[in-house]
Design goal:
The protein contains four helices and six strands; from the N terminus they run H-H-E-E-H-E-E-E-E-H. It is of the alpha+beta class. A hairpin with a 7-residue loop joins strand 1 (26-34) and strand 2 (42-45). The longest helix has 15 residues, at 47-61.
Length: 127
């Protein structure tokens, strides 16, 4: 698979809950940055930190949380996904649909870096 296909497949894995397959695309030293102001914002290093601090929290705090790319742009080692998040926050019962931009960096067929850009104010309104 080329880099764009790896990322496209990663979104499919996330959507179907196949987190082990998604984790298989991560470099062991991956850096994952959630936007400040987004729940659990910050930078996490390594798959275990990402699972514990991001994926498990999303699964427990949201009903039907999804990250759906509308367009994926291929820039070689960098892939940009433009899309939207949606879901209902369990603590408030409020729903959202918020745009995102994700920048993925790959080397040797593995994801080494992820950076999230999103409207954190819109997300905060549902928290």
């Amino acid at each position: 698979m080329n880099n764009k296909e790896i990322i496209e497949n990663g979104y499919k894995c996330f959507a179907t809950g196949d987190i082990p397959a998604l984790l298989g695309t991560f470099d062991e030293n991956i850096e994952w940055t959630e936007a400040e102001g987004f729940p659990h914002g910050g930078t996490y290093k390594g798959a275990n930190a990402i699972v514990e601090n991001v994926f498990m929290n999303l699964g427990g705090e949201w009903e039907g949380f999804s990250a759906v790319p509308d367009e994926i742009l291929d820039a070689g080692d960098n892939i940009v996904a433009l899309g939207h998040y949606s879901g209902k926050y369990n603590a408030t019962g409020k729903s959202m649909k918020v745009p995102f931009a994700h920048v993925w960096t790959l080397r040797g067929g593995k994801i080494v870096k992820f950076v999230q850009y999103t409207d954190t104010l819109k997300v905060s309104e549902v928290l």
